């Protein structure tokens, strides 16, 4: 058996974590031969609820669960962490403007970035799930000057998975037949789900669907799916978000499927003309615990316009918290 790795999860008593933690502990994220120590962070008032979640984790008697740490101190929860899933965030309260939301979260993610910088493993792989995820990841990254910016990512895998299922339904195929899906940009309603490279059982997706369906049905459905779930369920997507976090981390740690890629919001190196340093979702392949942006994807005018719109939103979010960025 391998030595245990340390997996920190914030917002550990929340909805997403209630699905996520059990799947990490069962080996679905890092493999059935990889023991894990869960290091759980919550705010002080939620520590009692976290105790209950930890009791349930114990009661599963997971063979791979090598320990549980519970804390309201980020320097305890992130100590030597090999993986950090930053799920906890401040939700939008009544009367809160987008700017207030950005600022409230900037306070949380700057503190957590500093704590990661101080105590986590130098190779820690960070996934930000809490919204606004891309900008929260940017803030954490900028507050962790001693860590490689490539270690900070944000989640657009849920959008990617939503796009796979919508296309599978439309083309009467299985998600197993679909490859080369890309979500570009922000995890928000400006995200751009791009079908131009997608293959359905080896055939170009754009040859199987009408442009009108693509532009006026598929794209808005994927963009608005989160809101549609809140309307139907009366609560935001939790199990599917946890599932996407598992997919994101598993691919990053263990590699993407041969001949395919995935979508990850990562530190832009200027590829495809996207401003350097933004946390922007690109098509990525992963191998040996590292990711790489897929190069050479053809961008037509339709795509370019949408890629720029979501880039502009991210730049505006960054500028709104500029005074809080080191
Ligand atoms: P939730 O409200 O059920 O749980 C959040 C938990 O975070 C709470 O237990 C809260 O006490 C904790 N928390 C708040 N501030 C914290 C801090 N500073 N340190 C540690 N813990 C803290 O929310 P849920 O449903 O679990 O969602 C979590 C976040 O994920 C939300 O921001 C949501 O918008 C986001 N989300 C992101 C998705 C994506 O695709 N990127 C998809 C779905 C949700």
Automatic annotation (TrEMBL):
Ranges for domain Lactate/malate dehydrogenase C-terminal: 156-322
UniProt KW keywords: NAD, Oxidoreductase, Tricarboxylic acid cycle
Domain of life of the native organism: Bacteria
Pfam families: Ldh_1_C, Ldh_1_N
GO terms under biological process: malate metabolic process; tricarboxylic acid cycle
Similarity comment text for this entry: Belongs to the LDH/MDH superfamily. MDH type 2 family.
Protein name: Malate dehydrogenase
Native organism taxonomy: Bacteria, Pseudomonadati, Pseudomonadota, Gammaproteobacteria, Cellvibrionales
Gene transcribed to yield this protein: mdh
């Amino acid at each position: 058996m391998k030595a245990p790795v340390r997996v920190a999860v914030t917002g550990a008593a929340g909805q997403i974590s209630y699905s996520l933690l059990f799947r990490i502990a069962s080996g679905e994220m890092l493999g059935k031969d990889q023991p894990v120590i869960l290091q759980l962070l919550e705010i002080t008032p939620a520590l009692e609820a976290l105790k209950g979640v930890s009791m349930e984790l114990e009661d599963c008697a997971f063979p791979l669960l090598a320990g549980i740490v519970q804390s309201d101190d980020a320097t305890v929860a992130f100590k030597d962490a090999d993986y950090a899933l930053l799920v906890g965030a401040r939700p939008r309260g009544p009367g809160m403007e987008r700017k207030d939301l950005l600022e409230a979260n900037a306070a949380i993610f700057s503190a957590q970035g500093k704590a990661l910088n101080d105590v986590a493993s130098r190779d820690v792989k960070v996934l930000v799930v809490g919204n606004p995820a891309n900008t929260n990841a940017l803030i954490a990254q900028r507050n962790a000057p001693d860590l490689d910016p490539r270690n900070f990512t944000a989640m657009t895998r849920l959008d990617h998975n939503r796009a796979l299922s919508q296309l599978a339904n439309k083309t009467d195929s299985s998600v197993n037949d679909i490859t080369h899906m890309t979500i570009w940009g922000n995890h928000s309603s400006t995200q751009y789900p791009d079908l131009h490279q997608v293959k359905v059982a080896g055939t170009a997706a754009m040859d199987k669907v009408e442009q009108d369906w693509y532009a006026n049905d598929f794209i808005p459905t994927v963009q608005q799916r989160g809101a549609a779930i809140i309307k139907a369920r009366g609560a935001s997507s939790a199990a599917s978000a946890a599932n996407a976090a598992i997919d994101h981390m598993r691919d990053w740690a263990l590699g993407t499927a041969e001949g395919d890629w995935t979508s990850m919001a990562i530190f832009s190196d200027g590829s495809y003309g996207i401003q350097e340093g933004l946390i922007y979702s690109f098509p990525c392949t992963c191998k040996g615990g590292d990711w790489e942006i897929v190069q050479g994807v053809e961008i037509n005018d339709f795509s370019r316009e949408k890629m720029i719109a979501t880039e502009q939103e991210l730049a505006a979010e960054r500028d709104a918290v500029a005074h809080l960025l080191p």
